[in-house]
Design a protein that fits this description.
8 strands; globular; alpha/beta
Length: 214
């Protein structure tokens, strides 16, 4: 079963890669652009409150070990840490991590905040290690499989991505409608939604999934 899932996953990944041959160079430029936004304060202004889906989901869970991928300046990581979660938070933008470290220090909570360029696969998601893995508004399809395998049995993967609107093609930044769900076909789907974002920091249509490892 796992082999069949990985084979299907590989097909989805090949499709995603084919969309943009220059994806790696673009990602590097994007990290630089985001870092500049954090230095200017523009990005941090948008990232004040935790994501509503993360709050709704995790309010029902006992605190455990959480991994926040592409954490930005840490709005979700901080919320989790303040509620007793053991949080590891990663982002490629150095300034974002500096802001999160400062917030954690000022808030008196512990967050393991580290600079990692996820696109370079510098961080290996250890299997059967996490109770929660969150990827909010960051699309890197090669992380979906490791995230599924990274959570413990009954662990949760929460992912939110932008999706293409009618007449638009998928890109490195947005999936086709219905596509996100395909990456979690071996999980119990606790929540799936496509439509207008419920997060005030994002205006484009989204796909949301909360998947529990069987």
């Amino acid at each position: 079963m796992e082999a069949a899932i990985r084979k299907g996953e590989a097909g989805l990944l090949r499709s995603a890669v084919a969309r943009s041959p220059a994806a790696v160079n673009n990602r590097c430029m994007e990290i630089q652009g985001w870092d500049e936004r954090y230095r200017s304060g523009r990005a941090e202004e948008r990232e004040t409150e935790p994501n509503p889906l993360l709050v709704e989901t995790c309010s029902k869970l006992a605190p455990g070990k959480a991994l926040d991928l592409a954490c930005g300046s840490g709005r979700n990581a901080m919320w989790l840490a303040q509620r007793g979660w053991n949080v590891t938070a990663l982002d490629g933008a150095p300034t974002a991590i500096e802001i999160l470290r400062r917030r954690a220090l000022e808030g008196g909570v512990a967050v393991d905040a580290t600079i990692f360029d996820l696109e370079k696969n510098a961080f290996e998601i250890e299997e059967n290690c996490w109770d929660l893995i969150a990827m909010c508004f960051y699309l890197q399809t090669s992380l979906f499989g490791p995230a599924r395998r990274g959570v413990r049995p009954d662990g949760i993967v929460l992912a939110i991505v932008h999706i293409a609107e009618a007449g638009e093609e998928p890109t490195d930044h947005r999936l086709r409608p219905g596509e996100l769900r395909q990456y979690f076909s071996d999980c119990e789907i606790l929540h799936y939604y496509e439509g207008k974002s419920n997060d005030s920091a994002h205006k484009r249509p989204v796909a949301e999934i909360v998947a529990r490892r069987a």
